[in-house]
Amino acid sequence: MWPPPEQVFDPQHPCSTAWAWEGGLAHLMNSLNIPYIPETAVCDVPMPPSRKSAFHRSQTLGYRNGFACSRLPTMGIGRERLYVNQLSQAELDELSNKRPTLTYGQAKQAPPSDFIPAHVAFDKKVLKFDAYFQEDVPISTEEHFRIRQVGIYYYLEDDSMSVMEPIVENSGIPQGKLIKRQRIPKNDRGDHYHWKDLNRGMNITIYGKTFRIVDCDPFTQVFLESQGIELNPPEKMIFDPYTELRKMPMRMYVTPSSFDQLKQFLTFDKQVLRFYAIWDDTENMFGENRPFIIHFYLADDTVEVRELHERNDGRDPFPVLIRRQRLPKSFVDKMKTFPRCVLEISNQEVLEWYTVKDFAVGKPITLLGRSFFIYDCDEFTRQFYYEKFGITDFQPVDVKKKPPEEVPQIIPPYNGYGFLEDSLQNCFSLLPQPPRKNFIKMLENDHKVLRYQVALESPNPEERKRQFILSYFLSTDMISIYEPPVRNSGIIGGKYLGKTKVPKPGSTTDNPVYYEPADLTIGATVEVFGHRFIITDADEYVLNYMESNAESFPATTLQSLRDHFAPRRTAVQAAESQSAAGMGRQELEELVKQVQEQLKHHNYLSNSSMREAFLHHDKDSSGFLDKEEFFALCNRFNLPVSDALVNKLISLCSHGENQISYHDFIRAFSC
């Protein structure tokens, strides 16, 4: 009984595919115990060619551990075993019986090289040949044939060929790939072109077209010579005669006539002279100077006048004043009776037309009744006149209007109302704007005021007794004057001068100079709108501020304040030293109260003018008086100097040997 097919066919056995049809026979021999004889097996029997079923080639490329590698083929077409790449039985026997030789014995044979497929060895290797072919042109009278240059490419990878023609711009011929890549037949017997069939200086026919190979590239030459092919000498490439003729400059035909309109047009076409002119129309009402450009066309002696528009000139944007036309220069005598209603003037009415000779820089010209003054021209016009007439004088004329003289603005004198800067804004605009302020200075010096005690300088002795407080505001540089009210003086105190800037004497309204803190020194005279004040005293804040900003004030100003405040600081230090010696302020207060009670017990009447008398005799406002002046004033007001408590109070108020502090002493008698 025959075995099933799946037991007979073995896909791993090299002979299974070819001898699957003899599976039954093999099974029968095994069942009859027929011995196996070498080279008589079923698989060793050659397969008839008509029984072959596999015609593909064995795979020679593969991957091992992720890398591409090549391997030798073992099976041929039809699953036949290949012995080309394997050792024969004799070679195997020789290797098994061969003994190793010494180092100086028989030379070792190099191992056979690895097998490399053709499509790998010749990958991206192309032979290039320069060739041309001739193409007939039967419908042209200028050329009868055309030479077209091509490049023949032979790909060694698969023995295919292609023909490429370089693209020429504006040739009118479809160019590029003439024959796509393929194996090109050589003859009718089915042979194809091989690289051995190609050489320089030979003709090759491809699909009915004959190509002449003239040269090849260096790679092709090296390859063919390495294969033992003797190359013919290179030939010169033939160019298309019609293309070379088109590259030559065209012949210019010039009419030999002395004057011809066609010659003038061909010679001076697109050549235009440009003149810059101005039309002075100031004689008429509302007339003005208007700029224009005059174009003179050399091709036909026509003239065009174009207007130059300026930005915001208020005119309609019509660019052309006179259209391009021939303009008459002079008319015939009978032109006086010629009707003016005609639109065109012929040569019969015109005696002379305007030509290029009538235009010159710096001269006026009348065009259709309008007088234009030419003041400049462009560079092409200068070059044309120099070559044609030899004129070199093209000095442009300055026609720009001179700007009107600026009328100096006269500032009226200051009338005394308001601030000077604020009143000055009324002279600059109908809607005056407030003057700019220095806001940084205002923020830095806000609430900073320097106060001085001043006295009025006057020939009247009653006026000289008046005391004022002058305040200088650092944020706005303004000054205010206040008079403290004095009872029974007959003068109403209060605000004497509001906040304002006080100019120095001699300054003008054009360049005013105002008083600054550096000008306010002890003993200085300040003139305020005709009134003179003498600075007699100042706050200690003034001295402290100037010492903290000493770099902003002169040394004389700072020194005068220091000298003025030196006695006061000395008195303060002395009082502090007395307090440190053991006499406290509380003791002094108790002594003052005891003196006041004793004076009340004796019915002493206080005199209100006693303080003013002491202040009047204190010329430097130091708070101290000499002993002689002090006792003289005490006798004047009948003070009990001989009393023991009063003597003790005088000793406590004494400073040094000759000076007495009268402030605490007067307080005891002002009960």
UniProtKB/TrEMBL annotation:
Gene Ontology CC: one annotated term: spindle pole
GO molecular function, a single term: calcium ion binding
Coiled coil spans: none
UniProt-listed InterPro entries: DM10_dom, EF-hand-dom_pair, EF_Hand_1_Ca_BS, EF_hand_dom, EFHC1/EFHC2/EFHB
Keywords recorded for this protein, A-Z: Calcium, Cell projection, Cilium, Cytoplasm, Cytoskeleton, Flagellum, Metal-binding, Repeat
Start and end residues of each EF-hand domain: 605-640
Residue span(s) of domain DM10: 123-228, 269-389, 446-550
One example of a Gene Ontology biological process annotation: mitotic spindle organization
Entry keyword annotation includes Transmembrane: no
Pfam families hit by this protein: DM10_dom
UniProt keyword annotation of Metal-binding present: yes
Primary localisation category: cytoplasm
Localization annotation: Cytoplasm, Cytoskeleton, Flagellum axoneme
Protein name, UniProt field: EF-hand domain containing 1
